[in-house]
């Protein structure tokens, strides 16, 4: 089991990952974790998103998401 600390940083709330949690979840600083809560409030799944493999993937994802908006401009 991984224990995570929840802290308020400015106007946002953050979950603090320990070194052990980073290793167990196989995630790096700058990556994204997607958490899906189950019906009873327990986390059902956690997936990770890595941008390290393709340096331009984040930019392409942004452009794809807002392509229609850019076309209207």
Note the overall shape. Answer: elongated
| Major sheet attributes | 2 strands, antiparallel
**CATH fold annotation:** Pemi-like Protein 1, Chain: D
What's the Cα radius of gyration?
16 Å
- CATH architecture, by name, is Ribbon
Tally of individual domains: 1
From N to C, what is the helix and strand string? Answer: EEHEEHH
Uncertain stretches of 5 or more adjacent residues: none
Give the strand order of the largest sheet, numbering strands 1, 2, ... along the chain.
1-2
Q: State the end-to-end distance.
A: 49 Å
Task: Give average pLDDT, whole number.
Answer: 77
Per DSSP, the total helix count is 3
The class by helix and strand makeup works out as alpha+beta
Name the helicity range: 25-40%
Strand composition percent: 25-35%
Q: Please write the CATH class name.
A: Mainly Beta
Number of strands: 4
Please provide a written account of the structure:
Strands 1-2 form a two-stranded antiparallel sheet. The chain has a two-stranded antiparallel sheet with strand order 3-4. The protein is elongated and about 45 Å long. The model has no long low-confidence stretch (mean pLDDT 77). The chain has helices at residues 19-25, 57-65, 67-72; strands at 5-9, 12-16, 32-37, 43-49. The protein contains three helices and four strands, in the order ββαββαα. By secondary structure, the chain is an alpha+beta fold. The protein has one domain: Pemi-like Protein 1, Chain: D (Ribbon). This is AbrB/MazE/SpoVT family DNA-binding domain-containing protein. It comes from Phenylobacterium hankyongense.
């Amino acid at each position: 089991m991984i224990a995570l600390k929840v802290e308020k940083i400015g106007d946002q709330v953050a979950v603090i990952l320990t070194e052990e949690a980073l290793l167990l979840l196989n995630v790096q600083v700058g990556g994204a974790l997607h958490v899906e809560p189950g019906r009873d409030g327990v986390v059902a799944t956690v997936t990770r998103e890595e941008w390290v493999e393709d340096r331009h993937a984040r930019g392409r994802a942004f452009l794809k998401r807002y392509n229609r908006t850019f076309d209207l401009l």
